[in-house]
Protein backbone atom coordinates (compact mmCIF):
# COMPACT_ATOMS: atom_id res chain seq x y z
CA UNK A 1 0.00 0.00 0.00
CA UNK A 2 2.77 2.33 1.01
CA UNK A 3 4.62 1.63 -2.23
CA UNK A 4 1.39 2.26 -4.26
CA UNK A 5 1.00 5.61 -2.51
CA UNK A 6 4.62 6.44 -3.20
CA UNK A 7 4.07 5.54 -6.83
CA UNK A 8 1.13 7.95 -7.16
CA UNK A 9 3.03 10.72 -5.44
CA UNK A 10 5.84 10.19 -7.89
CA UNK A 11 3.50 10.21 -10.89
CA UNK A 12 1.71 13.35 -9.68
CA UNK A 13 4.99 15.13 -9.00
CA UNK A 14 6.25 14.19 -12.46
CA UNK A 15 3.04 15.41 -14.10
CA UNK A 16 3.23 18.67 -12.19
CA UNK A 17 6.84 19.24 -13.24
CA UNK A 18 6.01 18.38 -16.81
CA UNK A 19 3.06 20.79 -16.90
CA UNK A 20 5.31 23.56 -15.61
CA UNK A 21 8.04 22.73 -18.07
CA UNK A 22 5.91 22.51 -21.21
CA UNK A 23 4.90 26.21 -21.49
CA UNK A 24 8.46 27.36 -20.86
CA UNK A 25 9.87 24.85 -23.32
CA UNK A 26 7.32 25.65 -26.02
CA UNK A 27 7.94 29.41 -25.58
CA UNK A 28 11.58 28.83 -26.49
CA UNK A 29 10.63 26.68 -29.43
CA UNK A 30 8.04 28.97 -30.96
CA UNK A 31 9.67 31.50 -33.28
CA UNK A 32 6.23 32.45 -34.53
CA UNK A 33 7.24 31.66 -38.13
CA UNK A 34 6.92 28.30 -39.78
CA UNK A 35 10.05 28.97 -41.87
CA UNK A 36 12.26 29.96 -38.94
CA UNK A 37 13.45 26.85 -37.16
CA UNK A 38 14.20 27.44 -33.50
CA UNK A 39 17.77 26.28 -33.99
CA UNK A 40 18.42 28.41 -37.09
CA UNK A 41 21.38 30.76 -36.65
CA UNK A 42 19.07 33.72 -37.24
CA UNK A 43 16.14 32.57 -35.07
CA UNK A 44 17.07 34.79 -32.14
CA UNK A 45 17.52 37.80 -34.43
CA UNK A 46 14.21 37.23 -36.20
CA UNK A 47 12.41 37.01 -32.87
CA UNK A 48 14.26 40.06 -31.59
CA UNK A 49 13.27 42.10 -34.66
CA UNK A 50 9.68 40.96 -34.39
CA UNK A 51 9.44 41.71 -30.68
CA UNK A 52 11.04 45.13 -31.08
CA UNK A 53 8.91 46.02 -34.09
CA UNK A 54 11.91 46.26 -36.43
CA UNK A 55 10.88 43.65 -38.96
CA UNK A 56 7.64 41.76 -39.36
CA UNK A 57 7.12 38.57 -41.28
CA UNK A 58 6.04 38.47 -44.89
CA UNK A 59 2.82 36.96 -43.53
CA UNK A 60 1.54 36.07 -40.09
CA UNK A 61 3.30 32.75 -40.26
CA UNK A 62 6.29 33.24 -42.60
CA UNK A 63 9.41 35.37 -42.33
CA UNK A 64 11.12 34.40 -45.62
CA UNK A 65 14.60 34.45 -44.08
CA UNK A 66 16.41 33.69 -47.33
CA UNK A 67 14.61 36.33 -49.37
CA UNK A 68 16.19 39.66 -50.14
CA UNK A 69 15.10 43.00 -48.74
CA UNK A 70 14.54 45.99 -50.99
CA UNK A 71 16.26 49.32 -50.52
CA UNK A 72 12.91 50.95 -49.72
CA UNK A 73 12.25 48.35 -47.05
CA UNK A 74 15.62 48.81 -45.37
CA UNK A 75 15.31 52.58 -45.09
CA UNK A 76 11.76 52.14 -43.81
CA UNK A 77 13.05 49.88 -41.05
CA UNK A 78 15.68 52.45 -40.09
CA UNK A 79 13.18 55.29 -40.30
CA UNK A 80 10.99 53.43 -37.81
CA UNK A 81 14.02 52.77 -35.58
CA UNK A 82 14.66 56.52 -35.62
CA UNK A 83 11.13 57.10 -34.34
CA UNK A 84 9.53 58.01 -37.70
CA UNK A 85 10.33 61.73 -37.37
CA UNK A 86 8.21 64.23 -39.29
CA UNK A 87 9.69 65.16 -42.66
CA UNK A 88 9.03 67.99 -45.06
CA UNK A 89 9.91 68.39 -48.69
CA UNK A 90 10.20 65.91 -51.50
CA UNK A 91 13.07 63.69 -52.41
CA UNK A 92 15.01 64.19 -55.62
CA UNK A 93 14.60 60.65 -56.91
CA UNK A 94 12.81 59.97 -60.19
CA UNK A 95 11.43 56.58 -59.22
CA UNK A 96 9.85 57.33 -55.85
CA UNK A 97 6.17 58.12 -55.36
CA UNK A 98 5.08 60.96 -53.09
CA UNK A 99 2.47 59.04 -51.16
CA UNK A 100 3.79 55.50 -51.06
CA UNK A 101 4.39 53.49 -47.92
CA UNK A 102 8.11 54.27 -48.16
CA UNK A 103 7.91 57.97 -49.15
CA UNK A 104 8.65 59.54 -45.76
CA UNK A 105 11.34 56.98 -45.03
CA UNK A 106 13.18 57.56 -48.31
CA UNK A 107 12.91 61.34 -47.92
CA UNK A 108 14.21 61.12 -44.37
CA UNK A 109 17.03 58.76 -45.37
CA UNK A 110 18.16 61.01 -48.19
CA UNK A 111 17.99 64.10 -45.98
CA UNK A 112 20.05 62.28 -43.35
CA UNK A 113 22.46 61.23 -46.10
CA UNK A 114 21.99 57.55 -45.36
CA UNK A 115 21.35 57.01 -49.06
CA UNK A 116 22.03 59.01 -52.16
CA UNK A 117 20.50 56.78 -54.78
CA UNK A 118 21.96 56.10 -58.16
CA UNK A 119 23.57 58.73 -60.29
CA UNK A 120 20.82 58.45 -62.91
CA UNK A 121 18.47 60.00 -60.39
CA UNK A 122 16.87 56.75 -59.30
CA UNK A 123 16.61 55.46 -55.78
CA UNK A 124 16.09 51.85 -56.73
CA UNK A 125 12.96 51.37 -54.65
CA UNK A 126 12.61 47.69 -55.40
CA UNK A 127 16.27 46.85 -55.86
CA UNK A 128 17.53 44.26 -53.41
CA UNK A 129 19.98 45.66 -50.87
CA UNK A 130 23.46 44.29 -51.35
CA UNK A 131 25.54 43.38 -48.33
CA UNK A 132 27.87 46.33 -48.86
CA UNK A 133 24.91 48.69 -49.30
CA UNK A 134 23.50 47.37 -46.03
CA UNK A 135 26.85 48.04 -44.36
CA UNK A 136 27.06 51.56 -45.81
CA UNK A 137 23.50 52.49 -44.87
CA UNK A 138 23.84 51.16 -41.31
CA UNK A 139 27.21 52.89 -40.99
CA UNK A 140 25.72 56.22 -42.04
CA UNK A 141 22.85 55.56 -39.65
CA UNK A 142 25.46 55.19 -36.91
CA UNK A 143 26.96 58.56 -37.80
CA UNK A 144 29.72 57.31 -40.14
CA UNK A 145 32.28 56.61 -37.41
CA UNK A 146 35.88 55.85 -38.32
CA UNK A 147 36.92 52.22 -38.13
CA UNK A 148 39.66 49.82 -39.01
CA UNK A 149 39.46 46.08 -39.32
CA UNK A 150 41.32 43.21 -40.88
CA UNK A 151 40.77 42.68 -44.59
CA UNK A 152 38.39 40.04 -45.82
CA UNK A 153 39.73 37.62 -48.39
CA UNK A 154 37.44 39.32 -50.93
CA UNK A 155 38.32 42.82 -49.73
CA UNK A 156 39.17 43.95 -53.26
CA UNK A 157 35.57 43.36 -54.29
CA UNK A 158 34.33 45.91 -51.74
CA UNK A 159 33.50 49.24 -53.38
CA UNK A 160 35.27 52.31 -52.08
CA UNK A 161 32.10 53.88 -50.77
CA UNK A 162 31.57 50.89 -48.48
CA UNK A 163 35.17 50.25 -47.40
CA UNK A 164 35.07 51.99 -44.02
CA UNK A 165 31.49 50.87 -43.49
CA UNK A 166 32.50 47.23 -43.88
CA UNK A 167 35.46 47.80 -41.55
CA UNK A 168 33.08 49.31 -39.03
CA UNK A 169 30.67 46.41 -39.39
CA UNK A 170 33.51 43.96 -38.90
CA UNK A 171 35.07 45.79 -35.96
CA UNK A 172 31.70 45.86 -34.23
CA UNK A 173 30.67 42.37 -35.31
CA UNK A 174 27.50 43.70 -36.90
CA UNK A 175 27.29 41.75 -40.15
CA UNK A 176 27.94 38.03 -40.27
CA UNK A 177 30.46 36.77 -42.79
CA UNK A 178 29.12 34.46 -45.50
CA UNK A 179 31.91 32.00 -44.91
CA UNK A 180 35.24 32.15 -43.20
CA UNK A 181 36.76 35.58 -43.88
CA UNK A 182 34.50 36.30 -46.87
CA UNK A 183 32.18 39.28 -46.94
CA UNK A 184 30.57 38.88 -50.39
CA UNK A 185 29.91 42.62 -50.69
CA UNK A 186 27.82 42.47 -53.82
CA UNK A 187 25.62 39.57 -52.80
CA UNK A 188 22.08 40.39 -51.86
CA UNK A 189 21.53 40.73 -48.14
CA UNK A 190 18.95 38.19 -47.01
CA UNK A 191 16.19 39.10 -44.60
CA UNK A 192 17.85 36.83 -42.04
CA UNK A 193 21.16 38.67 -42.45
CA UNK A 194 19.43 42.03 -42.12
CA UNK A 195 17.61 40.87 -38.99
CA UNK A 196 20.87 39.69 -37.50
CA UNK A 197 22.61 42.96 -38.37
CA UNK A 198 19.80 45.02 -36.86
CA UNK A 199 19.89 43.07 -33.60
CA UNK A 200 23.65 43.41 -33.35
CA UNK A 201 23.49 47.07 -34.33
CA UNK A 202 21.04 47.75 -31.53
CA UNK A 203 23.13 45.91 -28.98
CA UNK A 204 26.17 48.00 -29.96
CA UNK A 205 24.12 51.18 -29.67
CA UNK A 206 22.78 50.22 -26.28
CA UNK A 207 26.29 49.55 -25.06
CA UNK A 208 27.49 52.96 -26.24
CA UNK A 209 24.88 55.60 -26.98
CA UNK A 210 25.89 58.44 -29.25
CA UNK A 211 25.70 62.08 -28.22
CA UNK A 212 24.48 63.04 -31.72
CA UNK A 213 20.83 64.06 -31.26
CA UNK A 214 20.01 63.93 -34.96
CA UNK A 215 21.03 60.38 -35.50
CA UNK A 216 20.70 57.17 -33.60
CA UNK A 217 23.55 56.44 -31.23
CA UNK A 218 26.85 55.62 -32.88
CA UNK A 219 29.07 52.78 -31.78
CA UNK A 220 32.41 53.48 -30.24
CA UNK A 221 34.85 54.23 -33.02
CA UNK A 222 37.41 51.51 -33.13
CA UNK A 223 40.66 52.84 -31.76
CA UNK A 224 43.36 52.99 -34.38
CA UNK A 225 46.42 51.29 -32.94
CA UNK A 226 48.47 51.98 -36.05
CA UNK A 227 50.28 55.24 -36.65
CA UNK A 228 49.43 57.08 -39.82
CA UNK A 229 46.17 58.16 -41.34
CA UNK A 230 43.01 56.17 -40.75
CA UNK A 231 41.60 54.71 -43.93
CA UNK A 232 38.71 57.15 -44.02
CA UNK A 233 41.24 59.95 -44.44
CA UNK A 234 42.66 58.42 -47.57
CA UNK A 235 41.25 59.85 -50.77
CA UNK A 236 38.67 57.69 -52.43
CA UNK A 237 39.48 57.21 -56.07
CA UNK A 238 37.29 56.47 -59.04
CA UNK A 239 38.53 55.70 -62.52
CA UNK A 240 35.82 56.69 -64.97
CA UNK A 241 36.44 56.22 -68.64
CA UNK A 242 34.87 56.04 -72.05
CA UNK A 243 36.46 53.81 -74.66
CA UNK A 244 35.05 53.01 -78.08
CA UNK A 245 37.73 50.59 -79.25
CA UNK A 246 39.51 49.46 -76.08
CA UNK A 247 42.64 51.63 -75.92
CA UNK A 248 41.49 53.91 -73.14
CA UNK A 249 40.06 50.89 -71.39
CA UNK A 250 43.54 49.32 -71.27
CA UNK A 251 44.99 52.40 -69.53
CA UNK A 252 42.04 52.51 -67.14
CA UNK A 253 42.74 48.86 -66.32
CA UNK A 254 46.35 49.69 -65.39
CA UNK A 255 45.11 52.48 -63.14
CA UNK A 256 42.61 50.17 -61.50
CA UNK A 257 45.36 47.70 -60.62
CA UNK A 258 47.83 50.34 -59.52
CA UNK A 259 45.44 52.38 -57.41
CA UNK A 260 43.16 49.55 -56.27
CA UNK A 261 40.37 51.94 -57.11
CA UNK A 262 36.82 51.58 -58.40
CA UNK A 263 36.39 51.42 -62.13
CA UNK A 264 33.42 52.87 -63.99
CA UNK A 265 32.96 52.44 -67.71
CA UNK A 266 30.98 55.26 -69.28
CA UNK A 267 28.86 53.54 -71.89
CA UNK A 268 26.80 55.37 -74.47
CA UNK A 269 23.22 54.21 -74.43
CA UNK A 270 23.53 53.82 -78.19
CA UNK A 271 26.88 52.08 -78.73
CA UNK A 272 29.20 53.46 -81.38
CA UNK A 273 29.39 51.34 -84.52
CA UNK A 274 32.33 51.31 -86.90
CA UNK A 275 30.34 53.60 -89.20
CA UNK A 276 29.68 55.95 -86.30
CA UNK A 277 33.44 56.13 -85.68
CA UNK A 278 34.38 56.84 -89.28
CA UNK A 279 36.31 60.09 -89.00
CA UNK A 280 36.67 60.26 -92.77
CA UNK A 281 32.92 60.62 -93.12
CA UNK A 282 31.81 64.14 -92.38
CA UNK A 283 28.27 62.81 -91.87
CA UNK A 284 29.22 60.15 -89.34
CA UNK A 285 27.73 60.22 -85.88
CA UNK A 286 31.09 61.18 -84.37
CA UNK A 287 31.45 64.06 -86.79
CA UNK A 288 27.93 65.26 -86.08
CA UNK A 289 28.53 65.17 -82.33
CA UNK A 290 31.89 66.83 -82.72
CA UNK A 291 30.32 69.66 -84.71
CA UNK A 292 27.62 70.19 -82.11
CA UNK A 293 29.09 71.28 -78.78
CA UNK A 294 25.67 70.91 -77.15
CA UNK A 295 25.38 67.22 -78.14
CA UNK A 296 24.96 65.02 -75.07
CA UNK A 297 24.80 61.33 -75.98
CA UNK A 298 22.84 59.48 -73.31
CA UNK A 299 24.74 57.22 -70.93
CA UNK A 300 23.75 53.67 -70.19
CA UNK A 301 23.16 53.05 -66.49
CA UNK A 302 24.65 55.12 -63.78
CA UNK A 303 27.08 55.26 -60.94
CA UNK A 304 25.98 55.09 -57.35
CA UNK A 305 27.57 57.09 -54.55
CA UNK A 306 29.61 59.54 -56.63
CA UNK A 307 29.77 61.71 -53.53
CA UNK A 308 32.10 59.19 -51.91
CA UNK A 309 34.93 59.89 -54.28
CA UNK A 310 37.58 62.55 -53.83
CA UNK A 311 39.63 61.98 -56.96
CA UNK A 312 38.33 60.97 -60.35
CA UNK A 313 40.70 59.80 -63.06
CA UNK A 314 38.76 60.61 -66.22
CA UNK A 315 39.76 58.76 -69.37
CA UNK A 316 38.67 59.30 -72.97
CA UNK A 317 39.91 58.82 -76.55
CA UNK A 318 40.81 61.94 -78.44
CA UNK A 319 38.37 62.66 -81.21
CA UNK A 320 39.64 65.47 -83.37
CA UNK A 321 41.68 66.71 -80.47
CA UNK A 322 38.69 66.79 -78.10
CA UNK A 323 36.99 64.57 -75.57
CA UNK A 324 33.90 62.82 -76.99
CA UNK A 325 30.63 64.53 -76.07
CA UNK A 326 29.61 61.58 -73.91
CA UNK A 327 32.24 62.83 -71.47
CA UNK A 328 30.27 66.08 -71.28
CA UNK A 329 27.14 64.06 -70.51
CA UNK A 330 29.03 62.31 -67.74
CA UNK A 331 30.39 65.50 -66.20
CA UNK A 332 26.97 67.13 -66.23
CA UNK A 333 25.38 64.12 -64.54
CA UNK A 334 27.11 64.48 -61.18
CA UNK A 335 28.31 67.09 -58.76
CA UNK A 336 32.08 67.27 -58.91
CA UNK A 337 32.33 70.24 -56.56
CA UNK A 338 35.37 69.91 -54.30
CA UNK A 339 36.63 66.86 -56.13
CA UNK A 340 39.85 66.54 -58.08
CA UNK A 341 39.65 65.39 -61.69
CA UNK A 342 42.71 63.94 -63.38
CA UNK A 343 42.14 63.62 -67.14
CA UNK A 344 43.94 61.11 -69.29
CA UNK A 345 43.43 60.16 -72.90
CA UNK A 346 44.59 57.84 -75.64
CA UNK A 347 45.07 58.85 -79.22
CA UNK A 348 46.79 57.75 -82.39
CA UNK A 349 49.42 60.43 -81.94
CA UNK A 350 47.97 63.75 -80.79
CA UNK A 351 48.94 65.02 -77.34
CA UNK A 352 46.22 65.63 -74.75
CA UNK A 353 46.67 69.32 -75.44
CA UNK A 354 43.81 71.49 -74.32
CA UNK A 355 41.20 68.76 -74.69
CA UNK A 356 40.17 68.96 -71.03
CA UNK A 357 39.76 72.71 -70.94
CA UNK A 358 36.24 72.89 -72.41
CA UNK A 359 35.23 70.35 -69.76
CA UNK A 360 36.07 72.63 -66.85
CA UNK A 361 32.99 74.80 -67.27
CA UNK A 362 30.75 71.72 -67.08
CA UNK A 363 31.76 71.21 -63.45
CA UNK A 364 31.47 73.33 -60.34
CA UNK A 365 34.06 76.08 -59.86
CA UNK A 366 35.38 74.23 -56.83
CA UNK A 367 36.42 71.26 -58.95
CA UNK A 368 40.20 70.95 -59.08
CA UNK A 369 41.55 69.94 -62.49
CA UNK A 370 44.97 68.39 -62.77
CA UNK A 371 47.06 68.42 -65.92
CA UNK A 372 46.33 65.29 -67.87
CA UNK A 373 48.40 62.89 -69.90
CA UNK A 374 48.12 61.13 -73.22
CA UNK A 375 48.98 57.46 -73.66
CA UNK A 376 48.90 54.94 -76.42
CA UNK A 377 46.69 51.95 -75.81
CA UNK A 378 49.76 49.74 -75.46
CA UNK A 379 51.41 51.81 -72.72
CA UNK A 380 53.03 49.73 -69.98
CA UNK A 381 51.64 49.69 -66.47
CA UNK A 382 54.93 50.95 -65.08
CA UNK A 383 54.80 54.02 -67.35
CA UNK A 384 51.33 54.74 -66.04
CA UNK A 385 52.63 54.24 -62.48
CA UNK A 386 55.39 56.79 -63.13
CA UNK A 387 52.83 59.29 -64.31
CA UNK A 388 50.63 58.73 -61.23
CA UNK A 389 53.59 59.19 -58.90
CA UNK A 390 54.56 62.37 -60.75
CA UNK A 391 51.15 63.86 -60.03
CA UNK A 392 52.06 64.07 -56.32
CA UNK A 393 48.48 63.59 -55.26
CA UNK A 394 48.22 63.59 -51.49
CA UNK A 395 48.61 60.11 -49.95
CA UNK A 396 48.84 58.50 -53.37
CA UNK A 397 51.88 56.76 -54.61
CA UNK A 398 51.88 53.48 -56.42
CA UNK A 399 54.44 50.78 -56.57
CA UNK A 400 55.24 50.02 -60.15
CA UNK A 401 56.28 46.53 -59.08
CA UNK A 402 52.55 45.81 -59.09
CA UNK A 403 52.65 46.65 -62.74
CA UNK A 404 55.27 44.12 -63.77
C1 LIG B 1 36.27 60.01 -84.61
C2 LIG B 1 37.72 59.84 -84.24
C3 LIG B 1 38.55 60.92 -84.18
C4 LIG B 1 39.89 60.75 -83.82
N1 LIG B 1 40.69 61.85 -83.73
C5 LIG B 1 41.98 61.70 -83.38
C6 LIG B 1 42.83 62.82 -83.24
O1 LIG B 1 42.44 63.96 -83.40
N2 LIG B 1 44.14 62.59 -82.93
C7 LIG B 1 44.62 61.34 -82.73
O2 LIG B 1 45.80 61.21 -82.49
N3 LIG B 1 43.81 60.26 -82.79
C8 LIG B 1 42.50 60.42 -83.10
N4 LIG B 1 41.68 59.32 -83.15
C9 LIG B 1 42.20 58.02 -82.75
C10 LIG B 1 41.78 57.70 -81.32
O3 LIG B 1 42.01 58.79 -80.46
C11 LIG B 1 42.57 56.53 -80.79
O4 LIG B 1 42.43 55.43 -81.62
C12 LIG B 1 42.15 56.20 -79.37
O5 LIG B 1 43.16 55.48 -78.72
C13 LIG B 1 40.89 55.38 -79.32
O6 LIG B 1 40.58 55.09 -77.98
P1 LIG B 1 39.52 53.98 -77.57
O7 LIG B 1 40.05 52.67 -78.14
O8 LIG B 1 39.54 53.97 -76.10
O9 LIG B 1 38.22 54.36 -78.16
C14 LIG B 1 40.38 59.50 -83.52
C15 LIG B 1 39.52 58.39 -83.59
C16 LIG B 1 38.20 58.57 -83.95
C17 LIG B 1 37.29 57.40 -83.99
Can you walk through the features of this model?
- It is a single chain.
- The chain has 404 residues and is an alpha/beta fold.
- The protein folds into two domains: 26-227, no CATH class; 235-403, Flavodoxin domain (Rossmann fold, 3-Layer(aba) Sandwich).
- Helices cover 35% and strands 7% of the residues.
- It contains twelve helices and six strands.
- It has helices spanning 2-29, 43-51, 71-81, 103-111, 131-141, 160-171, 191-207, 247-259, 285-291, 325-332, 357-360, 381-391; strands at residues 237-241, 262-265, 311-317, 340-346, 368-369, 373-375.
- Strands 1, 2, 3, 4, 5 and 6 form a six-stranded parallel β-sheet that branches.
- Strand 4, helix 11 and strand 5 (368-369) form a beta-alpha-beta unit.
- Helix 3 packs across helix 4 (103-111) and helix 5 (131-141) packs across helix 6 (160-171).
- The longest helix has 28 residues, at 2-29.
- Flavin mononucleotide (FMN) binds at residues 243-249, 277, 279, 286, 317-321, 346-350, 377.
Blueprint of the fold:
Layout: H1 2-29, H2 43-51, H3 71-81, H4 103-111, H5 131-141, H6 160-171, H7 191-207, E1 237-241, H8 247-259, E2 262-265, H9 285-291, E3 311-317, H10 325-332, E4 340-346, H11 357-360, E5 368-369, E6 373-375, H12 381-391
What descriptive keywords fit this protein?
elongated, Rossmann fold, alpha/beta, six-stranded parallel β-sheet, 404 residues, binds flavin mononucleotide
Which ranges are low-confidence, i.e. pLDDT below 50, for 5 or more consecutive residues? 18-28, 211-233
Strand content: 5-15%
Query: Can you list the ligands bound to this structure?
Result: flavin mononucleotide
What is the strand tally? 6
Apparent shape: elongated
Largest sheet, strands/sense/barrel? 6 strands, parallel
* Tally of helical segments: 12
What share of the residues lie within helices?
A: 25-40%
The structure class reads: alpha/beta
Mean pLDDT: 84
Count up the domains: 2
Give me the Rg, rounded.
28 Å
What's the helix-strand series?
A: HHHHHHHEHEHEHEHEEH
How far do the termini sit from each other?
A: 95 Å
